[in-house]
Sequence to fold (516 residues):
Amino acid sequence: MNASDPNNVRIAKNTMYMYVRMFIILVVSLYTTRIVFNTLGVEDYGIYNVVGGIIVFFTFINSSLAGATQRYITAELAQGTVDSQREVFSCAILAHLFIGLVIVFLGETVGLWFLNSVMNIPEERMFAARIVYQLSIFSTFIFVLQSPFNAAIMAHEKMSIYAIFSIFDVLIKLSVAFLIQVITGDKLIIYAILITIAGIIIVLLYRIYCYRQFQMCRFKRVSDRGIFKGLFSYMGWALFGTATHVGTNQGVTMLINYYNGVIINAAMGVSNQIVSIVSQFVSNFQVAFRPQITKNYVIRDKDKLIDLTILSSRISAYLILIFLIPICFEIKDFLRLWLGDYPKYAVEFSVLTLICIFFESICNPLVVLITSDKDIKNYQLTVSVIYSFTLLFSWIALSQGLLPYMVIVIRLVIDLVLVISRLALMNNRWYGFPIRKWLERVIFKPMAIMVIPVAISFSLKSIPVESIWARIFFFSGISFLACIASIFLFLLEKKERAFIFTYLSNIKKSFFSNFQ
Fold:
């Protein structure tokens, strides 16, 4: 790949913005989570995660719409006109309004019944749980209506604005964490109210910016019914896929709550926080690639498209591995330093979920490529049916009294099956896609080379160090550097080293140009 190409320069700049955003969010989020966890306590923290999770089940609809909206907006930017772009955006606004109302209806009927009749929540905390739930429904409706504006920013590749607003968002949440320490009353209810207010402020900022900067964000009457048909067809299958994925995950959470209670939900919540932070290292990189993959698909530049997809998968694998290995070896000390007394099984949940994220992350570029086409029916049917077995096997495992973290082991096996399935679908759609090359360079070779830093990390464990800070920074630092050295010396090809050097050079130039 030519890193001096304008599109690649744009990827470099956008990646820089996303990583600046990520590092700030990483530090602030870790500290915020610690404050919230210690202030609310294990029980209330578990309640907040599991009650909010009911709404997450309904927001799968919004997730499908947001992905479809970004795909169509990106495609229109590549080959459409201002009028067609406004029609697509206006169509998306109407769709999100409708879906927002559907989510409110489902939340106030099915979801409320589930909260009151099925959830395993202590009776003395049910009032607070209901308040949190109602605020979650309101927040969800607001965020659903916000999705088209987020999609417009991402499709225009305005990552700098996205980064600024995201940083402001976590700073507001940090302020909320400090406030609940000093405000008297029910901490769980106060926290939920303040988080809702913070969300409204961020939504308003996004909308003001989009209205002022993008002509496409000005609503107009939709005259081309074909846009509605195409968008809703795509949304329907995306909805089916996301419903299965989120429904399965949330179903597993509910099963754990039913069989083990909110304490184990808290352990899952802690692991999800860690995984969310680590996965941002790769998702921020992939966000910068996503619009370019979609645009190259629309204009049918097959060679560049395949290069982008494989490169994105390879670097995604490297980014996950250089954090996965150090964290897994020092996870107990990390949790102790971060939370103090961490919930039972938090270690097992965290390590196993991180391994799952590795396989899911390397497949994301394939998913972006496949879903850049308007016809995603076969893909969604195949992947959704396979992933749904996670819920069935998890129910069997928990009902037989197996340990709670076995549900993540089951998810890991399913993820491996999904890797094979996605590659098979890629071969059917893109005859000649280098599957063997992808497997070798993205999975087999990296995992073989990672034996080196794993062996180093094992040997470090035998060195007695009393200070927890010293163990984390010294051992994790050496493991981290061993991963980077192994990748650079044994995994990167000559042209990829050249690309990365030019890539970093573009980032450096972009960074300093902002101060001139």
User: Anything to note?
Assistant: The longest helix spans residues 6-58. The mean pLDDT is 82.
